[in-house]
Amino acid sequence: YLLNLIYVAAWFALAPWLCWQAWFRKKPMRGLKAKWLGAFTDPRLNDAKPVVWFHGVSVGEIHLLRQVVARFRQRFPDWQCVVSTTTNTGYDEACKHFADLPVVYWPFDFTWAVNAALRTIKPTLVVLSEGEMWPNFVWAAKKRGVKIAVINGRMSPRSAKRFQRFRWLLAGVFGRLDWIGAQNDEYRQHYESLGAVNVVTTGNLK
To answer: pLDDT (tens digit, 9 = 90+) per residue, 61-75?
Structure first.
């Protein structure tokens, strides 16, 4: 709940800039209902099949997921795949390349939004591309017994220091991840310094 308050404060601080982007630069933020409330529906979601939820922040991560999702569907045809993204361009790209799959916006990291999204999608596994980390989502998913994996993980020295600075607030988020595939040994060591386990070096999947 402390994070909720921090996020709301950040939204109020960013509101003038977001309005300027939407009004003067014609870059409105789409999918706000889904992002704020975790509200979305798709008739293709089937409770009878296990679900894997793939997330890519924007266009680059969506391109990475194309081959990963294709291989996953080939090996596990009985699983249902859902793809999410954060940006408008990422959403358009995901709809183009995953036209036969549910594509949704990633919810903001408010407790009510992530819980609503998890109730709707009911994933067994969540796969995060390159490691965008949101504490409330991780905590809510683990409470539901959802497995979380990171592929093509990145953790620069600067990011690692930033996470270390707020480690008291993150309450073992990285230790709750079930598996991390890091791009190189340096990134792997940074993940481990933050409490992550089951970290392996896979190389850059791109």
So the answer is: 999 999 999 999 999
Other Cβ atoms within 10 Å of 20 Cβ, number:
11
pLDDT of residue 69: 97
**Distances, alpha carbon 91 to alpha carbons 5, 62, 63, 84, 154, in Å:** 28, 9, 12, 8, 22
Residue with tokens 């003038």: 16
How many CB atoms lie under 10 A from the CB of residue 80? Answer: 22
Q: How far apart are the first and last CA of the chain?
A: 37
Cα separation of 121 and 102, whole Å?
10
- Map residue 107 onto helix, strand or coil: coil
Q: Kindly report the average pLDDT of the chain as a whole number.
A: 89
The helix/strand/coil state of 88 is helix
DSSP state of 150: E
Task: Cite the DSSP H helix spans in 84-153.
Answer: 88-97, 111-121, 135-143
Indicate yes or no: pTM above 0.70. Answer: yes
In terms of pLDDT, which residue wins out, 46 or 181? 181
pLDDT at 125: 98
The number of C-alpha atoms within 13 Å of 152 and in the hemisphere containing its C-beta is 20
Pair of tokens at residue 76:
């596990």
